[in-house]
Amino acid sequence: SASPLMEQLIFFHDHALLILVMITVLVGYLMFMLFFNNYVNRFLLHGQLIEMIWTILPAIILLFIAFPSLRLLYLLDEINEPSVTLKSIGHQWYWSYEYSDFNNIEFDSYMIPTNELSTDGFRLLDVDNRIVLPMNSQIRILVTAADVIHSWTIPALGVKVDGTPGRLNQTNFFMNRPGLFYGQCSEICGANHSFMPIVIESVPTNYFIKWISNN
Ligand code: CUA
Question: Do residues 182 and 136 touch, judged by C-beta distance below 8 A?
Answer without folding.
Answer: no
